[in-house]
């Protein structure tokens, strides 16, 4: 299979978990009806984004004992018959009481095929603009994540993970054709770096990249940037939007991965005698 249709659901997220799950289902089904093969939800799609909310909205993630949100995601994937990258939800680890920011991925049969705990926590301080410290509440994950589809493998990471090029480098060298990032940049970091980072990860690794944000809610305590975006291996933006609720579609021609790698063969030109291969560390 040489092409697939990707959909990024830039969801409007509110304070009511049940309403968020119902709205996500409606949008996932809409995307599937439009022909999407892989559908992506945003970071913290079932809850407002903020350290004050993570504990309140957290759920255990156990494939043997589905929670409210994981059961909903499984049913969405099965009903729509798509691969569903389930944004992220606050996860409670019952054995320790620790909280994580966690993405789950679901097959068209409704089976959980991957789980990624955000590796790099969002701790920033822009004087006079925004201070945010996920580490006040969350613990970081300790593993990189990928999942297989009939079109190829995709890496998955969350938001701030995008700033660390090693994550995408490792995925690409393990054979992934794309990186998918549920994310929620804000009105300070978004205009500066959102598109830049997606294009940088794409051109560095000659893969597709995509990031899915919540829609902007000016009444919320955290103002998401929106602008969910898909980028091709030439670092060209092939789909994007503004800040309102929307679905961004893009057809991923996987032949472009081979095309760009033959045109600019950096894969065979790397000098691992001069610098290390991070994928082997």
UniProtKB/TrEMBL annotation:
Enzyme class: hydrolase
Hydrolase found in the keyword field: yes
EC number(s) from the headed UniProt entry: 3.5.1.3
UniProt key word Hydrolase: yes
Keyword set, alphabetical order: Hydrolase
Organism domain of life: Eukaryota
Protein name, per record: Omega-amidase nit3
